[in-house]
Every structure is written in C-alpha cells, then in structure tokens.
Amino acid sequence: MEIITTHTGTDFDALASMVAARKLYPEAKLSFPGSVAKEVKQFICLYGSLLKDIRPEDIDLGKVKRLILVDTRWLNRIGIFNQLISRKGVE
Q1: Long-range contacts: 47-56, Cβ < 8 Å, 24+?
Q2: pTM
Q3: PANTHER family given for it (predicted)?
C-alpha cells in the first residue's frame, strides 16, 4: 500500500500537493494525518468524494510499503505516519 500524506492542520497548498502527488502515484491513497484547516474541511464536505481519502485509523500501517510526504518540513507534524519513517521495508 502507498500512502500520500502531509502536515496536520492541512491547508489548501498541502491538499493541492497531495492531489498532484497522486498523479505521480495513481495507486496511492490520500490520508490526512490530523486536523485540516476550516476552509479545507468545507471543501472536503463538498468535493470529498472526488478525493477518496482514507482515515489514518483505517490504515493497517503494517501493509504500507511507500509513504509519500508532501508540503511538510517537520516529521512531528505527520501524526501517526511518523511511525513509518524509520520502519524497514518502507520507502
């Protein structure tokens, strides 16, 4: 499984980066690591079905083979996905 994620407090540039990354990794699943900005939340309410994102708690982290990080500088802002950073077998 491939996961595309970004920083907590996801804003529109982070969301756009996730969508762009999916063009490069079409099999990857989008997952928000935590909170999202109010405006992004409103957008997701309207167009979320187009994103087909999955909740972090619905992901079996043991099945993740690739973690694609976008628009993030600090690893402490990627929520549960921080567990995958040094895991053997995860790109």
Answers
A1: 51/19, 53/29, 54/29, 54/30, 55/31, 56/31, 56/32, 56/80, 56/81
A2: 0.92
A3: A-ADDING TRNA NUCLEOTIDYLTRANSFERASE, POLYA POLYMERASE
